[in-house]
Amino acid sequence: MTKMNYTRDNLWQIEEVGFDSRYLGKTESIMALGNGYLGSRSATEERYPTEQRDTFVAGTFNKFAENEVSELPNVPDLWWMDFIINGEHFSLEKGIVSHFSKRLNLKNGELIREFDWAFGTIELHFIFRRFVSKKRRHYLSSFVTIENLTEAAVNIQIRSGIDGQVTNNGSQHFYEGEKGLVDGKYIQMMPQTNESQIDFVFTAGHRIKAENVRERIEMGRRQIFMNYFFDLPAKGTAAIEKRMSIYTSIDNDHSDREVTAIRQRAITEMEALEDISFDELLQESAEKWNEMWQKHPIEIDTENFEDQLAIHFAKYHLHIMTPAHDERMNIGAKGLSGEGYKGHTFWDTEVFMLPYFNFTHPDIAKSLVTYRYLGLDGAHKKATSNGYEGAQYPWEAANPSDGEVTPVWGAADIVTGQSTKIWSGFIEQHITSDVAFGVKQYIDVTGDKEFAEQKAYEILFDTAKFWGSRLEYNAENDYYEIKDVIGPDEYKEHINNNAYTNYTAHWNVTYALALAKELKRSQPELFNHLNEKLGLDAVLDSLAEKVDKIFLPQPTEEGIIPQDDSYLEKKTIDLTKYKSADSVDGLFHDYNLEQVNQMQITKQADVLLLLYLFEGLFPHEMKLKNFEYYEPRTTHDSSLSLSTHAILSADLGKLDESYEFFKKARNIDMGEYMKSSDDGIHAASLGGIWQMIVFGYGGVRMIDGQLRIEPHLPKAWKRLTYGFDYHGESIDVVVTKESVELTKEDNGNNVMFVSNGETYSLKNKLLITLEEV
Ligand code: IFM
C-alpha cells in the first residue's frame, strides 16, 4: 500500500508512505529534482521494471529519426546504484519493507527515501538522500547510508555508475562516445546526440565510508560503473556518496565546445569541491532556494493547510522546470519531469506560467519572452510554408528557430484501430495571438521599454501581419472569418470561427494598429525602422480595412457566445461519469474523437478562457450565463481547465464553487490519485495554482495596460498575504475579508491601480476597506 501523506506540521514537505512499484511514476514526477538547467525524475537508485528513469538537460533537443519530431533526450542515468547483499539483489519487491517514507523537502530541494528492509536473516535500514544543486547548475549529489540492524555481519556489493542504456521510450538519441576512468577517481562518459550533435560529458566520483573496501571498474555497452565490495559488521553503518555532473557543448556558462576541454572542466569542478561535504553543498544550494522563497512569499491563513502546501509545491516546480539561465530555451508542458509532450513548449507558457514570472521574477519572464523573439524565424518558416505572411508561431516549439514540431500521429482511435491524427500542429492557430498576448502582458507588467522597442513591438506587428493574411473574406456576409481551426477546446477539430481564436486575433490586429498609430506619433524613428524591416505600411493599410469586419461570434438570445459556428447545434450527453472520474481518458474508451467532435463536450476552458483573459469586453451578466452554460459541458480533461474556472467563478462572486475548483486544481499532481503524473507534472496547472491565488483571490489583473486589484477570499481563508513586482516597484499585499492593505517602499514611483471602479495611487501604504461578498 502506498499513499501520499501531507501534514499540517510541515508545509514544505510532500511525502509518500508505503511502497508499491505499480505507482513509481507518481513520485518520480512530483518529487522531481532540478534547477532549470537540468531536471530529473526521482526514480529510485535500484531498478524496477515499472520505473521511468528520466533526466533532461534543457534545450538539448534531438531528432532521433527523419520521421520523428525533435524531443528532449533522456540522458544517461547517473542516480543508478545496485546493492547486492549476501549475494542477493536488493529490491523492495522482495522481503519485508517497513517504515517506508519517500519525501521531498520543497524548501531546499532535498529528496530523502528511507525504510527498513528484511530479507531472510538480513535486516538493514537504508537512507537515500539526494539533490540537484541550485547554486552549481551542473552538479548533482547523492548520499546513501546503510545500517545493519542485526548481530551478524553482511557482505555488500554496490554497483554504481553511469548508464547510457536509457532511452526515450525506445528512441536512443546518443552515439555512445568515449568512456573511462580519470585519475583513478572519476568515471566519465561522453555521448553525442545523433542529429543535433550536442556533446555531453557525464562525470561521477564515489566516496565510501566502510572498512576494507575493494573496488573494481566495469564497462558494458553504453555503461560504465564501479563495484565496491565490503563487509558491514553487526550493527555497523556504511555510506556511499556519489558526486555527479553534467555538461554539454551548448552550455552558455562556459565557452568550451570541444569535448576534451569540457571533460577537463568537469574534473576541475569535482576537484574544487573535494573538501566540501555533502551537507555543505546541500546548504549552499538551500541558500539559493531561500533567495527565491524570500521573493514575494505567499501565506494563506486557513485550516486547509494543503492550500499553503500547494503554493510551495507549485513554486518549487515552476523554478526547477524553467531554464531561466538561457533565453534559447523555454518551459516544457511537463517541465523537465517526464517524456510527455517531448519537452516542447506550448501556449501553456504565455497563458499559464508567464504571469507568475511577469509578476514575481521579471528577469526570468524576460528570458521566456525573448525565446519567442528568437522564435520569429521559425514562425516565419511556418507561415510561409502554409502560404501566409508574418509570424505564425508553432503549436509546439523546441529550439526557437525550428518552427513546428508537433508530432502528426497520436493515440489509438478505438473505432478505426488506427493512430489518431494530431491536427494541432496544422490548425490550432490561437497560439499566435497567445504569444502576442503574453509579450504584451510582459511589457505592461514590467514596463520594460527596452524590450518593447527592441523585440516586443516586432512580435506584435508580425503576428498581426500573420492574422491579416489568415483572415478569409466571406462575401455573402461581408466579413472576415477564420475557418478550419482547433480552439482551446481540442475536442472540436476543423471548426469555423472559434470564438477564442477570432476574438484574440481581432485583439492582436487592433492592438498592432493602435501601436502603429502611437509609434508614428511618439517614436517615428522606431516606427520607420520597424516599417523597413516588416513592410508595415502596406500591411497596416490592409489590416485597417479588415479589422472592423473580423467576425466576432455574438451572444445568442440567451446570452451564450457560440464556441464556434456549429457547437450550439450539436447534441449533448450526460457527462457525469467522465467529470467525476479520476483519470481523464475515460471519454475515449467510449467514443473516438470524430464522435466527440459531434457533441457539445468541451475539453477545457475555451469561451470561458476568453471571458477571463479579456474581461473588459464582456458584461458580468453575460459571463455568468456563459459560465453556467459551458461548465456543465466541460470535462476538464486538460489540466489547463480548472484554474480558469476557479478564477472566473471567483470573479463572478461564486466563491464556494470557485474554491471547489481550486481544490481540484491544486490536486492535479499533488492529489491522492497515484497515476496522475506518470508522464510528468502538469506545468500549466502549477502556474494556474499561483494565478488562482494571486489573480483569483488576491484579485490582481492586468487589463488593457491597467493594473487592477479586487480581492475576494474564499470562506475557508481568513487572510492572504502575497506580493508582486510592478514596473520595478515591489508591492506587498495583505487581504482579509474586511480589507486589503498594500505596502511598497516610499522611494520609487507611485503605483496607479483601479479597484472596484476607484483609481488609487500607492505611494507607501494604502488600506482599502472591502465590502463583504
Ligand atoms: O497546451 C495544452 C493543450 O491546451 C491541451 N493539451 C495539452 C497541451 C500541453 O499542456
From TrEMBL:
Gene3D superfamilies: 1.50.10.10, Glycoside hydrolase, family 65, N-terminal domain, Maltose phosphorylase, domain 3. It comes from the Bacteria. SUPFAM superfamilies: Galactose mutarotase-like, Six-hairpin glycosidases. The keyword Disulfide bond does not apply. Substrate binds at residues 347-348, 603-604. Residues 313-691 form the Glycoside hydrolase family 65 central catalytic domain. Residues 701-762 form the Glycoside hydrolase family 65 C-terminal domain. GO terms for biological process: carbohydrate metabolic process. Residues 16-249 form the Glycoside hydrolase family 65 N-terminal domain. InterPro entries: 6-hairpin_glycosidase_sf, 6hp_glycosidase-like_sf, Gal_mutarotase_sf_dom, GH65_N, Glyco_hydro_65_C, Glyco_hydro_65_M, Glyco_hydro_65_N, Malt_Pase/Glycosyl_Hdrlase. Keywords: Glycosyltransferase, Transferase. GO terms for molecular function: carbohydrate binding; glycosyltransferase activity; hydrolase activity, hydrolyzing O-glycosyl compounds. The active site is at residue 490. PANTHER family: GLYCOSYL HYDROLASE-RELATED, PROTEIN-GLUCOSYLGALACTOSYLHYDROXYLYSINE GLUCOSIDASE. Belongs to the glycosyl hydrolase 65 family. This is Glycosyl hydrolase. It comes from Candidatus Enterococcus dunnyi.
